[in-house]
Each structure stands twice: as C-alpha cells, then as structure tokens.
Amino acid sequence: MNPIAYRDRALFCDNVALADIAADAGTPTYVYSAQAILENYRSYEAAFGAQPHTVCYAVKANGTLAILKLLAQAGAGFDIVSGGELYRVLQAGGDPKKIVFSGVGKTAPEIDAALTAGIFVFNCESEPELALIDALAHRHGIQARVAMRVNPDVDAATHAYISTGRLAHKFGVDIADAEAIYDRACQHENLRFEGVSCHIGSQLMNPEPVMEAVDRVLNLIDRLRSKGFDIRHADLGGGLGVAYKPEESTPDISSFIAQMCARLKDRGLHAMIEPGRSIVGPAGVLLTRVLYRKTTGDKNFVIVDAAMNDLIRPALYSAYHEILPVRETNGQRSIVDVVGPVCETGDFLAKDRELAEVMPGDMLAICTAGAYGFVQSSNYNARPRAAEVLVEENSWRVIRKRETNEDLVRGEVE
Ligand SMILES: *Cc1c(COP(=O)(O)O)cnc(C)c1O
What we know:
CATH topology of the largest domain: TIM Barrel
Radius of gyration: 23 Å
Low-confidence stretches: none
Helix content: 25-40%
Bound molecules: pyridoxal-5'-phosphate
CATH class of the largest domain: Alpha Beta
CATH architecture of the largest domain: Alpha-Beta Barrel
C-alpha cells in the first residue's frame, strides 16, 4: 500500500496531512510512514514461510534511530557496513546476534567493536581481511563466524554506480577463487567458516540475475560442503528495486523470495537477505516549499528550499523522483526544472518535468525518498540538514531535529 495519497485534494501520509507537518516542523523535512516500513519488512518475513531465515535490514539505506528501533522491535536483523552503523543498531536496541557486517574496508577498531558486541557474522571481502579478523578474534579469545562475500560475475542490469556483482567491481572475491580461499583460510584457528554471501547490486528490477547468482552460490556451497566445510547459511544480499515512477512495475517481494526459497529447499541452509531500499524507499517523502519561480530563455524554474545536499540521488544517479503538490489543483500544468538553492548546475530535483502550476509558499512532496535520501545528505553550502518525521497511525513526531547553525560549526576550532 502506498502510504502517500490524496484525500480531498490534500496529500496525506497515512492519516496525517503533509501540510500540517510542514506547517509545524518546517521544510525541508523527510516524512516516513511507520506502517509502510513495517508492511514492507513483514512481506519479506511472510514470504519465507517455513524456510529458516533472517531478514537483515541494510542500515545504509536509512539509519535513523527511530527507524532502526521500529525494525528491531519487529524482529529484524541488520546488515551494517561500518562501526558507526554498528553503534546505531546497538543504540536502537538491535540484537547483535542478528547483525551481519559487510564492506570492503573494515578497520581494526571496527572489527574489534563487532567482536565485542558479538555479531552474527562477518561477510569478508578479501584474504587480508580474514587474517586481520583472525588475529583480533585470537586476542578476544573467541572464534569469529565468517562468510566470504563472493562475486558471482553476473550483470545486475542496474545503474553503474550501484551494480556490484561483476569481476571489475571492488566487492567480494571472484567466485572462481572462492574454494581455494576457503581451503587456504582453514589455517586461521580463530575463524569459523559458516556461510557464503553475495550481493550483486541495488535497484534490481529483474529477479533473473539474482537467481543466477543464487544458483552459483548454492553450487559453491555444495562443493564446500563436500570438502567438509560446515556451511550453515547463505546470505543472498539485498537490492530489490522500487518504483520511482508511478507506471513502473517492481518485482513483487513475495514472488522474489518464493523463487529464492524454491532453490533453497531441502538444503538445510539458513537463508539471510539484506534488503534496504525496498523496505524504506517507498515509505518516505521529502517535503519542500516553493521559494521562487523564474524563467530564463525557454526554461522555467521552480526554486525550492530542498537541494542536492538534502537529496543527492537526482544529481548523483540521474535518478527520477515523482513530485506531487501537497495541495492538488485543477490548474494548468507546465514543463519545469525543480531546483534547489545550492550553487551547482547539478543541483536539481527534477528536469523538464510536467508539474501543476505551483506558486511561492506552496509545498511539494518528493516521493520515494525514504532510502538513500537523508543518509546521503550533507552540509554543503553550509546548509543545516533537514528534520525527519515519523508518522505512526494518526499521529506524527520529529525523530531528528533540524540542524541549527551551531550544529554546522560543532567541533571546529578557529
Ligand atoms: C547496499 C547493500 C545492501 C542493500 O541494498 P538495497 O538495494 O538497499 O536493498 C545489501 N547488502 C550490501 C552488502 C549492500 O552493500
């Protein structure tokens, strides 16, 4: 269910009018539907049925404490990529025994913190990383559970910046080398090789490459098991896409997971997945206010108070985000660029977009902004970062205060 819909021409997030939030919390503000986040998470949970599994929410999509807490209380595990994300998950009450730690550049202090917390598994991306985890686990007097992240060399057919599963990418180890790596790594006495992991990319609209990767990973697991490795889990990554345009159809979570489960059947494997975008993306909007309109040459600009520092996806990935007026009108529509105040030509939220005639003071909702929105925001142009609001049924609350000018200079020395 799309949490964002018009009622009597006013745009709502669940049962709350976005105009009310904007009036109170100001703009720009991210607004998330708790119900939509939980529904998306639960559709993963439900789809696994009897297959043993853990859904590890990918924190990098949106790591705000209230959202992590919501998912932790619903029973989610977490996929983290830094010591900072580990800290966030623990602050939010996440269960360390359901944390998987991914990433190509884990530092010694990050690994130490994860060992201290007692996370479930390290998804390792190189042999030197295995050696470091082994040495640190030795110092802790424990055995660390590890899974190699293998690169199955399939083309995820997504944006170049978020495709990760080809040999030319920095992620994982070549699946063809994996067996030899597991063999060599047996010498590490403080490691327990219990899994294999992969993640081929993000905003995947087609399940085919993922299933191809799953087949290759399961094939590797068969070979490792026949050599005596006690492989207990397969981590099949995240990456399911969401609809940024209303007419786009996305792979359905249930059928996606059903296809995975069919392959996992009767193998005695615990399945892990790491979805981020598909849980929080459609659950959030960025609310912004129109500041000015202007025309230069044959271009019409709508200048708003949100910018590329608040939502970088259009500038970084040429991403499309649907933009809806918070008050719907019958008025005429025109073709405009929606741009922010940042001093960069790349600072746009929409290009050549047909939009209802909006005037200064009107509010706009930039849709499907719950994932890779706030987390990628910055203070560029000395702009305080936006506030975040969580809608829970009929009420809403600020889950992150808007930054102030004092926040901008915190920690600096003249
Ligand atoms: C980014 C990432 C994810 C989540 O991807 P989504 O497209 O947000 O579902 C999962 N696992 C790893 C290792 C990642 O880097």
